[in-house]
Amino acid sequence: MKKEKETISILGLGKSGVACANLAVSKGYKVFASDSGKARTHLQMKLDKRVETEFNGHTDKILKSDIIIKSPGLPPDLPILKNTELNKIPVISEIDFAMSFIKPKKIIAVTGTNGKTTTTTLIYKIIKNYYKNAVVAGNIGFPLSSVTDKINKDTVLVLELSSYQLEDSPDFRTDISVLLNITPDHIKHHKTMKNYVLAKANIFKNQKQGDFIVFNYADKYLKEIIPLNKKSSFPFNFTKQNHNCIYYKDSAFHIIHKNKKIDFKAQVKIPGRHNIDNILASTAAAYLAGVPVDCIKKTISSFNGVEHRIEFVKEIKGVKYYNDSKGTNVDSTKVALESFDKNIHLILGGQDKGSPYKPIYNLIKNKVKNIILIGEATPIIEKELKGAAPIYKAETIKNAIKKLHNTAKKGDIVLFSPACASFDQFKNFEHRGKTFKKIILSLN
Known about the structure:
Elements lengths: L6 E5 L3 H12 L3 E5 L17 E3 L12 E4 L11 H5 L4 E2 L1 H6 L6 E6 L4 H16 L2 E5 L17 E5 L2 H5 L8 E4 L7 H4 L2 H9 L10 E5 L3 H6 L7 E4 L8 E5 L2 E6 L2 E5 L8 H16 L4 H9 L9 E6 L2 E5 L6 H9 L5 E6 L11 H7 E7 L3 H8 L5 E5 L1 H11 L5 E4 L12 H13 L3
Parallel strand pairs: 1-2, 1-4, 2-3, 4-5, 6-8, 6-9, 7-8, 9-10, 10-11, 16-20, 17-18, 17-20, 18-19
Antiparallel strand pairs: 12-13, 13-14, 15-16
Helix pairs in contact: 4-9, 4-10
C-alpha cells in the first residue's frame, strides 16, 4: 500500500471491517469507519479508539478519503459508492489491504460455492502438520487483517475466500488457488450468474508462471473458465494419464505430476461424495505446496470435519440429529441430502437468497419423510416444493425440533440444512447452528 494514501474509510464494521480499521490505525493511517448499525456496542470485535466512526448510515464524509475499504457482503451498488467513481477513489477489499503488509513463504487460497471451510480447514491441518509455521484466515472466521502480525517469510498462509471478498480484490495473487465448484448463489448480491463466476475467477487472474490452479474438472463453469492446456492447471476428477491431475478411484487417491504417479489410501471419516472432492482438492494443494504424501495421508485419516457442516449432534431414541447450518444455499442442501439414504426429516428455511428450490425436489421426493419450514422464506419454499413431501410450517427452530422430537421414529434422521441465509432470525449461520445444537443437546 502506498504511504501517500494517508486517509482510509472503512465501509461496514463487521469482523473484517473492525480488524482492517485496527490494522490501518496501527500502520499510521487516519481512519474513518462508517456502519449502518445503531451503535458501537453492536460490534463483534474491539475497535481501536483512534478510529473515527459514524453509525446509522453512510454520509459523504466517506468520500473525503484516499481509499475506501468495503466490507464483504455489502452490495456494490450502495448509493454512497456511486460517487466514488466521480471522485476517483479506489474501492478495495480488506484482503487486498492486509496483503500489502505481508510476504509469506506461500499462499494457498480456496474458493467455491460449497465446501470452502471443510477444504480450507483440512489444507491448514495438513500444512500445520508439516511446516508448523502456518496461518489460516479469511472467510473462515479470522480476518486476514487480524493475523498479519503472525505472518512472516516462513509462513504458509491458507485463505478461505468468498465471492464477496474476491470481487473487490483486483490485485490479489496466490501461489496455489483452489476452486471447488460453482453453483447459483448470492445472485441477489451479484445480480447475474456471470458476475458471480467472474468474482470467483479473480482468485487466479493474477497468477504467474510456477503458480497452480487446482480445480474441479467435473464442474461445468470451472471447465469453461480454466483451460486444461495452461501449465498451471491441476484438475481433480480428471483421469487422463498424460496430464497433471488428481482423482479418486477404487477407494484410493491417485496423483499424477510431472509424469510421476502416486497412489495412496486413507481412512475417510467425513461422509458424502462431496467430501471426497474436498479431500482431493486439499491433497492437491498440500502436495503442490511440498507436503509429503505420508503427512497428507495421516492428516486425512484423523480429520473429523468442521462444525455446522453435516455435523452429527446426538442420537435420541434411535433418531440421529445432524446440524448443517452452513448449508446456506440449495446446492449445499442437495449435497447434504445425498449423504443419507432415506427416512429424512428436513428442516428448511431462513432468509431467501434468490435461487430456486426446485433442484432438490426429486431428492426430497425420494428421501424425505417431512419438510419442516422456518423463517422468512417459508411461503417461497412451500410454493416450489409442494408435492415433494408433506410440509409443516414451524416458524422457528425450537418449534421444528419440538414437533420432530414427538414424531420422528427410530432409524429416522433429522437434518437441519436450511438452504437459506440466517439473517432473518440469527446473527450468522454459526449462531443458528449453535442454537440448533443447544436445543438438541437439552433433549432426552
